Amino acid sequence: MESHGKPHQKEQDGDLSPKPITLSKYSNRVELKTLLDRSDRGAALAGKRVVIGGWVKSARAVKKDSPPPPPAVVAVPSPSSGGDQAHTTANIRCTEIIQSKMNIFRRFFDVLSGSGKTYPIFDKTELAGQKAAPPPEYVFYFLISDGSSISSLQVVVDSALSTVPATQLMALGTCIVAEGVLRLPLAASAKHVIELEAEKLLHVGTVDPEKYPLSKKQLPLHMLRDFSHFRPRTTTVGSVTRVHSALTLASHTFLQYHGFQYVQVPVITTTGFGEMFRVTTLLGKTDDKEEKKPVNEKDGFSIDTVKAAIKEKTRLIDHLKRSDSNREAVVAAVHDLKKTGDLASQLEMKQKSKTGTLVKSEKLDFSKDFFGRDAYLTASGRFHLESYASALGKVYTFGPRFIADKIDNARHLAEMWNVETEMAFSELDDAMDCADEYFKFLCKYVLENRQEDMKFISKRVDKTITTRLEATASSSLLRFSYTEAISLLQKATSTKFETKPEWGVALTTEHLSYLTDEIYKGPVIIHSYPKAVKQFYVRLNDDKKTVAAFDLVVPKVGVVITGSQNEERFEILNARIAEFGLSREKFEWYLDLRRHGTVKHSGISLSMEQMLLFATGLPDIKDAIPFPRSWGKANN
Predict the structure, then answer these.
(1) Cα–Cα distance between 253 and 54 in angstroms, integer?
(2) Is the Cα dihedral 544, 519, 479, 567 positive or negative?
(3) DSSP state, 411?
(4) C-alpha triplet 442, 448, 451: angle, nearest 5°
(5) pLDDT tens for residues 28-68?
(6) What are phi and psi of 445, to 5 degrees?
């Protein structure tokens, strides 16, 4: 990357020159974005031969015009045959006709009842003296998506090309790899600019329509969470995922351009504080002498009975989703299943407590554990980044962070992915500048590089999202102190807050929402918090009451970026560790950075999922991560 100018924010447009179509790297096919994400939507590519692959989004069949069937051949009695023979010389008796028709009726019944049997149509003479009719021929029209673009390609397939039954070929979710020639649509009223006339079907991956959870009927996002492994095949989740990818690339682009070095920090840490997930291999290794009491049933329900009920109710929900049942019926069934699942969790917890598999940490000897000491899933990577910032100057990392709070709402996850930076020779104002520029860069990057996805998201999710991102990218973020925020909240006499805004309390979701949605109607940066509401390692300000921390808060979402200048003074940091009641032994390595070559430093932490909520307008954070983990939920 060049050392002058600004980081590139616009990906290269599709090439309209007559050069050969570029194959997908590491795959012998053409990605649909290569064909469709051009200013002419692919019209100039007509006549090109390509191989494409993707999944069926919709399908229809049109019967070909066929010649009339040949006339039936019936024997006519000769004049010399006599009157009696005239009644018997016809080649078809009444009983034969009935038996032949019954055979056809059975076949129709098998098809309609979904028995799975397939038959050639008129594969042999059904009526004596009549030639077999040829099987009907169809032309299939598929809309295929391969995930590379919001757009889908229409693929035209002659039924003669497929050895798979039509019902399976046309099923939603079927994977098709086809070779053919691109052409302009034959129908003048076609909505698409170009289509593929298939000459070969190279692969067909069928689905089981009875078990495949997706359907042509649009399912609400909260229902799709039960099928996290299939939901990226939906248009909405596909678009959100591409925006997510763009935000990730933009983060690396911005930070690399500004001289940050990428560093991997550990997911497992021995420096733990707050609500953290413990990592141990000691569970279940309890004292064998402990008496294991039988598990009592809860209100007459056994765990086996409840689990059986869960399976049955899950099958019912699957049936309702595949049928034309109204949303209220599905929602009621899902709610009922959740209550049953909660009951099962209670019974399992009770069973574990009776059998002694849940053990208090005080009873475990962690010196015998895998790591020989306490270990946790990390809640922040900035601790370890400090050691590299003290050598390389500016560093960053991107990875999962874990919080074991038992909270289940639209803004909380147990596992989130954060972009974190640490900068030596840097103070609070520097960190706020970095957060401000980084945040606006992300907004602009998404608008410029995911235009089609953002158009779709604005139609499907939030009509105001594009305008909001444009306004944010071009504006200056207002900065004010925590003390000023409390003063503003106290003046809001017409609004009643659940938590009274008094100096010293942590700002709640409703406080932040009022500031960003009602007063400023846009993102703001709030800084200089009371020392009691921020972590021990944040630098103490000269007033001894506040610390050098800030939050970048946005409307409808809340905090997207947190940041701080961390304490570089050994004596003050040591006192703060004691003040919080933490074990100094765990933080000796952290204190060493102050003993040897200490320097002022600051950094930021961006929640990628919260940023995605702001960039797309999604209402629930569980839809902003591929496989959400939250209290009581960890599907897949």
Answers:
(1) 30
(2) positive
(3) T
(4) 115
(5) 899 999 999 998 999 999 999 999 999 999 999 998 874 44
(6) -65, -45
| Residue 114, C-beta contacts closer than 8 angstroms, at least 6 positions apart | 210
- The dihedral region occupied by 451, where left means phi > 0, alpha psi between -120 and 50, and beta the remainder, is alpha
Q: How far is CA 21 from the centre of its chain?
A: 31
Per DSSP, what are the bridge partners of residue 551?
526, 562
Going by C-alpha positions, the residue among 465, 501, 436 that lies closest to residue 239 is 465
Whether 153 and 59 have beta carbons less than 8 Å apart is answered as no
Which pair of tokens denotes residue 634? 């960890």
Angle, nearest 10°, between helix axes 588-595 and 570-579? Answer: 160
User: Per residue in 418-465, pLDDT tens?
Assistant: 999 999 999 999 999 999 999 999 999 999 999 999 999 999 999 999
Question: What pLDDT is stored for residue 123 in this prediction?
Answer: 42
Distance CA 474, CA 259 (A): 24
Q: How far is CA 372 from CA 265, 272, 510, in A?
A: 20, 15, 44
Is 364:252 a contact under the CB 8 Å cutoff? Answer: no
Whether 375 and 279 have beta carbons less than 8 Å apart is answered as yes
Please check whether residue 351 is in contact with residue 303, taking contact to mean a CB–CB distance below 8 angstroms.
yes
Q: CA–CA separation, 453 vs 241, rounded Å?
A: 10
Cα gap 448→450, rounded to integer Å: 6
Q: What is the 3-state secondary structure (H, E, C) of 233-285?
A: HCHHHHHHHHHHHHHHHHHHHHHHHCCCEECCCCCEECCCCCCCCECCCCCCC
Strands (DSSP E) found in 20-83: 49-63
Amino acid at 316: L
What is the rounded CA–CA span in Å between residue 375 and residue 387? 20
Q: What mean pLDDT, rounded, does the chain reach?
A: 84
Helices assigned H by DSSP within 291-374: 303-322, 327-355
Q: Could you give the 3-state DSSP secondary structure of residue 88? A: coil
DSSP 486-519: HHHHHT-TTS--SS---TTSPP-HHHHHIIIIII
Can you tell me the distance from the alpha carbon of 60 to that of 190, in angstroms, rounded to the nearest whole number? 14
User: Taking Cα atoms as reference points, which of 398, 144, 166, 173 lies closest to residue 263?
Assistant: 398
Two structure tokens written together for 210 = 């009875």
* CA pair distance 239, 616, nearest whole angstrom: 9
Contact present, 153 and 32 (Cβ < 8 Å): yes
Q: Residue 633 CA to chain centroid, in angstroms?
A: 15
Nearest to 122 by CA among 109, 111, 107, 112: 107
Dist. CA 530–CA 482, nearest whole Å:
8
What is the Cα gyration radius of the chain? 33
Give per-residue pLDDT as tens, 380-421.
Answer: 999 999 999 999 999 999 999 999 999 889 999 999 999 999
Q: Does residue 262 have a pLDDT over 90?
A: yes
Give Cβ neighbours of residue 71 (< 8 Å, ≥ 6 apart): none
C-beta of residue 58 within 8 angstroms of C-beta of residue 172: yes
Q: For residue 233, which phi and psi values (nearest 5 degrees)?
A: -80, -10
Residue 298 per-residue DSSP state: B
